[in-house]
Amino acid sequence: MASRTCLLFLLVAFLAGALAGDVIEVNRSQNQREFDYFALSLQWPGTYCRATRHCCSKNACCRGSDSPTQFTIHGLWPDYNDGSWPSCCYRSDFNEKEISTLKDGLDKYWPSLSCGSPSNCHGGKGSFWGHEWEKHGTCSSPVFRDEYNYFLATLNLYLKYNLTDVLYKAGYVASNSEKYPLGGIVTAIQNAFHINPEVQCKRDAIDEIRICFYKDFKPRDCVGSKDLTSRKSCPKYVSLPEYTPLDGEAMVLKMPTDREAL
Ligand code: U2P
């Protein structure tokens, strides 16, 4: 009886979460249903990097004056129209050699903004790129069936749909004092790309903006974009924080090796 009550409670809690709009990640292993669309998720380094507490060589927040000042890539995610997404669809261990010719572009536009080693799909720890390939890239077939094409297409999309530039031209620039209307930022993106993006905030700071695409890479609305009031993570006025990298001396003092940073 007790275990029945417990099961019922878990079921109700699960359904309540789903109905409240919590996203559901589907780990479909081999039997994945084909995804519906792509979300190109772009992170704002000013928001991410100001939480930096220690440095290591792989963390782009620690590049001093070369730290990124534009949106960088978080990932290209195959998603379902119901708000869930597949993950870890088949075993394909990340091999950095396959993308060695893309490394300069990836270091610049798709850097890790932390020292942590995210988990891969099989219980191990790996690089940011390895995590994104194994968790999301493997679910992007039949559009992509290999690492090289997945990373190359993501870089090309990022360069073609230059979000930082769109916001800059509309007057939305990095600032530690300005607050901008969320509606104005969304309108600037709508006018440039003719789609509704998805926006995520950490408190009042823009954290990520997602631009979505059909499988043929024509832009389309993101599922979580429907109306402004449902963008529960952002207030009406938002910021795009500037990031002031740790100064040179502090960087040296705080720069453990990658091993120590794990
Ligand atoms: O939003 C929190 C984390 O959930 C994963 N996510 C979110 C939306 C989506 O469409 N697809 C998706 O995978 C991301 O996990 P990550 O790739 O970072 O492991 C996102 O960070």
Note the topology.
Elements (H helix, E strand, L loop, with lengths): L1 H18 L5 E3 L9 E7 L1 H5 L22 E8 L5 E3 L15 H7 L18 H8 L11 H14 L2 H7 L10 E2 H12 L4 E5 L2 E9 L5 E2 L16 E2 L9 H7 L3 H4 L1
Parallel strand pairs: 1-4
Antiparallel strand pairs: 2-3, 2-7, 5-9, 6-7, 7-8
Structure report:
- The chain is α+β, with helices and mostly antiparallel strands and 262 residues long.
- It has helices spanning 2-19, 45-49, 103-109, 128-135, 147-160, 163-169, 182-193, 248-254, 258-261; strands at 25-27, 37-43, 72-79, 85-87, 180-181, 198-202, 205-213, 219-220, 237-238.
- The protein is globular and about 45 Å long.
- The protein binds ligand U2P.
- Ligand U2P is lined by residues 23, 39, 75, 77, 79, 85, 135.
- It comes from Camelina sativa (False flax).
